[in-house]
């Protein structure tokens, strides 16, 4: 039950009226036909319910796709929500479809905030078998099991058809992986049947077909024209799946730990201002500092407020808490360095305190007073009792590692963190280890963001200057994070690809 609820604020109820009364239509006056809602970009869907519309206010042909997008995002608690209330995700998605009756919208519109009556109201909301909530939960599960949808039911598949579809989809995924890894364009200037070169994607699909007997048997000409898995939209969907799987692996690496932001902005070939966002974090499993590119954001202007809002939006979309950021770094205009950065006025003292962690020369720079002062720079990471406890822990720590030969020839705090993990001393000295990680993730001079822009110039070139912002970001994530791309399996991509929307074929 708990996973279906979010602490969010709702959208006001929007209703529509018509000119039908008592079953008779007044023919003497022109009828007022309700305006059909416009199709929207799914990227514009808000995480905070106070900014989102009711499901019935979206275009009928897009409602299931919107529902599926919210389900794939999963329950979240965005930063800066406008009210501390409890909301039910399944009921938001399906209550209007199940019951058009009024009332019972506390968990959908107003939000429930009577925390002293929480369990009583939750039990009442969930109800017995057949209640609106239970039916909404079943509808969520059924929506994600596409083999039960009407579209699929009308398109019965044999095992042979499913196998042919999988082969075609795998071929498209393999070609997409190669082009993404090489930062090559997919489309061609002339993709007609009579063209001598129809673009990298179609030409490589043709080559794959000629070289692979299994693909040749399900030749694209024998498949339905709308089921060949080679259309530009299919190509973009596959690229998006690769990018999302890579981001998923990066977020798994970070876990619940702290991270720093490395941000830079530059103009692309179309003179658009693009901002790269790189996460810097310490990976305790291997004891290494890592920097991972997580997206490109188009900004219309480069003011501090605009850039900060763009960063906040991207992190919220990724499901990262802004509270875990430790010292954002920016390589562009100096005024950007000032936003939300508590280290500006105390940089010198901060670096002096950090130097006390240096293990070189047999911990010659160690100073417990400086390290206790360093804790004061992180009030959100250490409680008052921990600030007292770390003094005693530091005394035991320096006495222990000073006599341990494994810590005798370390070169910097990076080596210290790595050896602490290897020797399990990060468990024995958790407060010191936490302080060490916070020092390690502080932004330093790095070429990572510059490499991102170099790759952007390869992806968005003069001949490819009309590529969309989201598609550009997806391509860059795969082109830059090549190691993560190599670990993404075809089955991972297929699973996400099938869940993105209702597909004609099911696996």
From TrEMBL:
SUPFAM superfamilies associated with the record: Ribonuclease H-like
One Pfam entry name: Dimer_Tnp_hAT
Domain TTF-type: 65-156
A GO molecular function held by the record: protein dimerization activity
InterPro entries (alphabetical): DUF4371 (IPR025398), HATC_C_dom (IPR008906), RNaseH-like_sf (IPR012337), Znf_TTF (IPR006580)
Domain of life the protein comes from: Eukaryota
PANTHER family in alphabetical order: PTHR45749, ZINC FINGER MYM-TYPE PROTEIN 1-LIKE (PTHR45749:SF34)
Protein name, as recorded: TTF-type domain-containing protein
């Amino acid at each position: 039950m708990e996973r279906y609820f979010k602490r969010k604020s709702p959208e006001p109820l929007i209703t529509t009226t018509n000119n039908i009364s008592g079953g008779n239509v007044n023919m003497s006056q022109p009828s007022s036909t309700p305006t059909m809602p416009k199709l929207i970009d799914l990227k514009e869907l808000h995480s905070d319910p106070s900014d989102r519309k009711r499901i019935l206010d979206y275009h009928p042909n897009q409602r299931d796709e919107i529902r599926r997008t919210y389900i794939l995002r999963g329950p979240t608690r965005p930063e800066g929500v406008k009210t501390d209330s409890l909301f039910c995700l399944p009921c938001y998605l399906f209550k209007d479809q199940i019951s058009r009756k009024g009332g019972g919208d506390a968990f959908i519109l107003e939000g429930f905030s009577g925390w002293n009556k929480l369990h009583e109201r939750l039990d009442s909301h969930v109800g017995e078998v057949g209640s609106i909530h239970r039916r909404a939960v079943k509808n969520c599960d059924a929506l994600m099991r596409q083999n039960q949808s009407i579209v699929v039911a009308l398109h019965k598949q044999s095992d042979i058809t499913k196998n042919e579809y999988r082969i075609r989809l795998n071929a498209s995924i393999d070609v997409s992986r190669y082009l993404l890894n090489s930062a090559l364009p997919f489309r061609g200037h002339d993709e007609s049947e009579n063209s001598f070169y129809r673009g990298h994607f179609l030409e490589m699909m043709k080559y794959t077909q000629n070289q692979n007997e299994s693909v040749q048997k399900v030749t694209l000409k024998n498949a339905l024209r709308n089921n060949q898995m080679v259309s530009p939209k299919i190509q973009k969907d596959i690229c998006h799946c690769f990018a999302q799987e890579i981001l998923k692996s990066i977020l798994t690496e970070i876990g619940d730990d702290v991270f720093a932001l490395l941000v830079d902005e530059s103009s692309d070939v179309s003179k658009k201002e693009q901002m790269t966002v790189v996460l810097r974090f310490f990976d305790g499993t291997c004891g290494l500092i890592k920097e991972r590119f997580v997206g490109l954001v188009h900004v219309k202007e480069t003011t501090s407020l605009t850039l900060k809002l763009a960063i906040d939006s991207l992190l919220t979309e990724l499901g990262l808490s802004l509270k875990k950021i430790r010292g954002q770094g920016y390589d562009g205009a100096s005024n950007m360095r000032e936003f939300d950065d508590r280290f500006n006025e105390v940089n010198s003292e901060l670096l002096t305190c950090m130097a006390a962690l240096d293990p070189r020369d047999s911990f010659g720079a160690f100073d417990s007073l400086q390290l206790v002062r360093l804790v004061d720079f992180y009030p959100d990471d250490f409680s008052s009792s921990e600030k007292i406890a770390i003094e005693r822990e530091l005394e035991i720590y320096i006495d222990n590692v000073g006599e341990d030969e494994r810590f005798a020839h370390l070169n910097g705090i990076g080596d210290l963190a790595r050896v602490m993990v290897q020797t399990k001393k990060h468990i024995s000295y958790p407060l010191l280890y936490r302080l060490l990680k916070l020092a390690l993730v502080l932004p330093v001079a790095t070429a990572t963001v510059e490499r991102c822009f170099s790759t952007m110039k390869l992806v968005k070139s003069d001949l490819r200057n009309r590529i969309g912002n989201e598609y550009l970001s997806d391509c860059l994530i795969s082109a830059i994070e090549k190691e993560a791309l190599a670990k993404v399996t075809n089955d991972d991509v297929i699973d996400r690809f099938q869940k993105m929307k209702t597909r004609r074929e099911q696996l």
